[in-house]
């Protein structure tokens, strides 16, 4: 099995498209006003947005996008006007992360996990 796509809710898909294009995702399906799908710049994963009348309550979904050069990517995005809630910092789980929210308040984490993304020291041994 391979994860193909994550879909998040949005009150305004058109506005969300602009935000995600600024992040560097490539728009591949434009079915405004209800749906849009992007391909990630690295790998084969896709990411989509669908229109909702109301956003879910609570913390919602956390979406992680891995960036090889996290600090420079954050610097580049800040220059494009993207606001970060948390600048890149090293985490106890051995990832470096920066946190932000999209135009609908969905939690995004740009991170670099390197070998620890799949193989942390505490990985279950088979």
TrEMBL record:
InterPro entries: Glyas_Bleomycin-R_OHBP_Dase (IPR029068), Glyas_Fos-R_dOase_dom (IPR004360), VOC_core (IPR037523)
Domain of life: Bacteria
Name the record gives this protein: Bleomycin resistance protein
Gene3D superfamilies on file: 2,3-Dihydroxybiphenyl 1,2-Dioxygenase, domain 1
Limits of the VOC domain: 2-113
One Pfam family linked to the record: Glyoxalase
SUPFAM superfamilies: Glyoxalase/Bleomycin resistance protein/Dihydroxybiphenyl dioxygenase
């Amino acid at each position: 099995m391979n994860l193909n796509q994550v879909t998040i809710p949005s009150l305004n898909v058109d506005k969300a498209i602009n935000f995600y294009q600024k992040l560097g995702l490539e728009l591949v399906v434009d079915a405004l006003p209800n749906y849009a799908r992007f391909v990630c710049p690295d790998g084969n994963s896709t990411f989509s947005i669908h229109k909702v009348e109301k956003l879910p309550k609570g913390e919602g979904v956390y979406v992680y996008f891995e960036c090889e050069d996290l600090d420079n990517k954050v610097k580049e995005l800040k220059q494009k006007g993207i606001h970060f809630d948390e600048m890149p910092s090293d985490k106890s789980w051995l990832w470096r992360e920066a946190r932000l929210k999209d135009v609908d308040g969905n939690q995004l984490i740009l991170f670099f996990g390197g070998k620890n993304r799949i193989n942390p020291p505490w990985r279950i041994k088979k």
